[in-house]
Amino acid sequence: MAVFNFISDDSHGWMEVSLIEFPEAVNYGSGFGYINGNTIYLEEDDEAENFIYHLRSQGEPITFIEKVYDGQWFGRAYARNVRGI
């Protein structure tokens, strides 16, 4: 079972994915999420939805741990994720 953090702040949300464990996740970045080292943060509306579809099509069970930030999440200062970086 794959366990992911789902991060949300006052206005948006992101799925936190380890690129060590799921290197293919980098292909789901479209510039709306973020990347920091070996972790990509897939934005909830498109990037995360498509990655979740990919995992489920592979038969991967998924669960989330929700992390809620009051105000803006500090990760908004990370570099934008861009497909194929």
Walk me through this protein's architecture.
This protein has 85 residues and is mainly beta. The protein has one domain: 2-Layer Sandwich (Translation Initiation Factor Eif1), CATH 3.30.780. The chain has 1 helix and 6 strands. The chain has one helix at residues 47-57; strands at residues 2-8, 13-18, 34-36, 39-43, 62-68, 79-80. Strands 5-1-2-4-3-6 form a 6-stranded mixed sheet, covered by helices on one side. The protein is globular, with a radius of gyration of 12 Å. The mean pLDDT is 95.
Low-confidence parts: none
Number of strands: 6
What is the domain total for the residues? Answer: 1
Helix content: 10-25%
Q: Strand order, biggest sheet?
A: 5-1-2-4-3-6
Mean pLDDT score: 95
Give the biggest sheet.
6 strands, mixed
CATH topology: Translation Initiation Factor Eif1
Tell me the distance between the termini.
27 Å
Task: For the structure shown, list the relevant keywords.
single chain; 85 residues; mainly beta; Translation Initiation Factor Eif1; 1 helix; 13% helix
Secondary structure blueprint with pairings:
Elements: E1 2-8, E2 13-18, E3 34-36, E4 39-43, H1 47-57, E5 62-68, E6 79-80
Parallel strand pairs: 1-5
Antiparallel strand pairs: 1-2, 2-4, 3-4, 3-6
In short:
With 85 residues, the protein is mostly beta strands.
